[in-house]
């Protein structure tokens, strides 16, 4: 008798439920940065450091939601020849060890059409998709196709999101609710934004899925504050991409080391 | 509000989010409340006679409207039919861009925004925005690609003199696409106190409809002027298309009068058979998402946005407004492309023939009309003047 493979949504739920720390450790990496091969090793280093889930970015020509560090990483990845296919291969490789959520801008998701994109993504074993420039409700077909493949379409909410939109987004959320901690683009901040605890509570009240906090979290202290505020997961992006970029000899070791420090902030 | 007055637009319809399958709001969630607020505020302002009274007063006394409709003597003689030029080059700041900047800045002030940002290609929208910010005493930052800053230097100088803070963008091709992306990122980071004055009929809803509502003054005036002068409507209306605001502006009052032919002229660059052009409407292909809306766009098979090429900074953009994509697909308008060389030639021809130096962008529309052997009654939008282009054209840049 064969075991049914868990769907993406189920794998993500299990990752949150079975985490060993106060909040799930959710690092981001830019596929193809510094090279495709090195980015895959960065992902493996994240797994060794204890990542509960990995966000895998697809480099894009016009990343509106990304600050300078991640934008530059994407530009470098594209210049190095990174393609959607190349990044999907990384997704496949990493998916064996950890749930992978792809982060991809709308034009690349819709280029082959939502059905084809969802099919390809599910085929890699990836668990979910985040589309930073696709607000909830704009393209119902993307949600439909992700649901059909058991892929979690993870929405974002911002501090500026109105109560009405928050309710709608919370209701349609799959996987987790990506809660943006600051008004702005990705990037490290010296202090977490005001109303930090408030946004986590607002998000939690609106949805049945776990709440993950991201944007501007770069130190173990900030990670701990996120867990204190009630976040089920902590997303770290720019800090790790910066570490990889600053260590050309061994980006995976550098990023892995930073992630281990961040993980320590979530212990106990 | 008197329904017939130029620039008042259709009464209280909601703002379109889509034009057929085109348009929409493809933006980070952070911007959604700002877009909702903008739409609500525009609907209120559009129905407020006080808003229009102030805007019309400024358009009249500050901008110098209405702009003339000029029957081009020697051009008409050469082409064998009457050719009229709608003189947006005589609008204050030298192009049609001020119509939109004024309207949006007044709106931003109504919304209590203390800061305005803009993107700019040729610099005309940047200058228009800096101008209105100086007029209203609002802080202003303008994003401009480093390559555009080089080839449109007079406009950079103007913006600085007007008190705008220039934000050079050196990513990618360093032109309009990158400047727009950078401006959107600024808006994402500063959305609560900042209004983003998009310069054309592009971007997420409600911008394409909002900018159309503010630029239709061009067409409303031209239509009335044409009826007065010729006693009939134009047979053909021609305008250059970058994002497409002067074209939408002059097309709008004629949209329901289907006997009037509408032609948009894009940047053919080095030729549309090469990859070096800015003519997504003309070339066709799969629609895509750029800067928040779904429209005609230059992209590769994966969906990466491709870099455009044009000698004219204002047309050097791989996208086009969603309403243009709809007008093309529905057959209401058609889109053609003209090369750099043709535009440069037309630039000089108009100067010699009519004593008007057009913007390089505008020269694309002129090049196309110069190339049409037949016609009955042509109306061309002379969207801007070409002082900014002298160094580039004469090779002093």
Describe the structure.
- Chain A has 268 residues and is an alpha/beta fold.
- Chain A has a single domain, classed as Aldolase class I (TIM Barrel, Alpha-Beta Barrel), CATH 3.20.20.70.
- Chain A has a 9-stranded parallel β-sheet.
- In chain A, helix 11 runs antiparallel to helix 12.
- The longest helix of chain A is centred in the last third of the chain and has 14 residues.
- Chain A starts with 7 loop residues before the first helix and ends with a helix.
- With 397 residues, chain B is of the alpha/beta class.
- A 6-stranded mixed β-sheet of chain B has the order 3-4-14-9-10-13, sandwiched between helices. In chain B, strands 7-6-5-8 form a 4-stranded parallel β-sheet, sandwiched between helices.
- In chain B, helix 9 packs across helix 10.
- The longest helix of chain B has 24 residues.
- The N terminus of chain B is likely disordered.
- Classes of the chains: A alpha/beta (268), B alpha/beta (397).
- At the A-B interface, helix 3, helix 5 and strand 6 of A face helix 1, helix 8 and strand 11 of B.
Largest beta sheet of chain A, briefly? 9 strands, parallel
User: Span from first to last CA of chain B?
Assistant: 48 Å
Residues in helix, % of chain B: 40-55%
| Structure annotation, total helices of chain A | 12
Radius of gyration of chain A: 17 Å
The strands making up the biggest β-sheet of chain A line up spatially as 5-4-3-2-1-9-8-7-6
- Overall shape of chain B: globular
CATH class of chain A: Alpha Beta
Helix/strand/pairing class of chain B, anyone? alpha/beta
Order of strands in the sheet with most strands of chain B: 3-4-14-9-10-13
**Average pLDDT of chain B:** 94
What characteristics describe this protein?
heterodimer; A: alpha/beta; TIM Barrel; 9 strands; 46% helix; 13% strand; globular; B: 397 residues; alpha/beta; six-stranded mixed sheet; disordered N terminus
